[in-house]
Design goal:
binds adenosine-5'-triphosphate; 9 helices; binds magnesium ion; 224 residues; alpha/beta; Rossmann fold; six-stranded parallel sheet
């Protein structure tokens, strides 16, 4: 056993990374890897949204976005792609995803939703948001240089205060209920900037894996 890990339980702790992944990039992948290491996660599931509730329907089909997620996580035994939102009708609500994961995995396993700071500012608009923390923990990471990052609403400040922990071990002692903030390497990469580079015929190399760029070229995505 590694020094420092002796205090961690044998509980299975699964990270959940949801997003449009239009396309997935090194910001998503590196954030998940560092949180897996820092929080001693047993696995991370990437869950592409079919129809994100807070965005217009992505131009690139869910099938292509999921295929790019699979290419991005290839070779990492900690990572997997979970298609459950793609197999559901209608908007992809996180609460439904968590309920379905609990059905499958039971109440004992610890689940940790990985969320960037920009997404968290809108968390109190998510469908049945107050029930989400009863089903999972939340790990927040600061996203660099987000334009117009909104301040947290009063209800989110209260939410943070009542669930906050600085102790990563708490995520192993209970299955749900804590919010932690984690520092990860700041990578100012977004799918929006990748799409915009590709539309301008600029290179998106070094922002995402080459295998995904190859896929984008093959299917001529993001060029129209
Ligand atoms: P878009 O520009 O289309 O919104 P995006 O790059 O923001 O794409 P999303 O699929 O919207 O990617 O993000 C999914 C999740 O990943 C969100 O919680 C978001 O905050 C987080 N995330 C995205 N990019 C980064 C990054 N570079 N660093 C840390 N977290 C990120
Ligand atoms: Mg985004």
């Amino acid at each position: 056993m590694q020094a420092g890990s002796a205090t961690y339980s044998k509980k299975t702790v699964i990270g959940l990374s949801g997003g449009t992944f239009d396309p997935i990039h090194f910001g998503h992948l590196r954030m998940a890897q560092e949180l897996a290491d820092n929080l001693h996660l047993s696995a991370v599931r990437f869950i592409p949204a079919a129809q994100p509730p807070h965005k217009s329907t992505p131009e690139v089909s869910a099938k292509h976005r999921a295929a790019m997620v699979r290419l991005g996580i290839a070779g990492n035994s900690l990572f997997s792609c979970d298609d459950r939102e793609l197999n559901r009708e209608g908007a992809s609500y996180t609460i439904d995803t968590l309920l379905s994961l609990r059905d499958e995995l039971g109440a004992d396993i610890s689940l940790v939703l990985l969320i960037g700071s920009d997404a968290f500012t809108k968390f109190d608009t998510w469908h049945r948001w107050q029930e989400i923390i009863q089903l999972c923990h939340i790990a927040l990471v600061q996203r660099p240089m987000v334009e117009k990052q909104e301040p947290l609403s009063k209800s989110l400040q209260n939410f943070l205060q009542s669930h906050y922990t600085e102790n990563a071990e708490d995520l192993h002692s209970k299955s749900a209920g804590f919010v932690t903030m984690q520092t990860v390497t700041a990578l100012d990469i977004s799918s929006t900037s990748i799409r915009s580079n590709l539309q301008k015929q600029h290179s998106a190399k070094y922002l995402l894996p080459d295998s995904i760029l190859e896929y984008i070229r093959t299917y001529q995505l993001y060029t129209k």
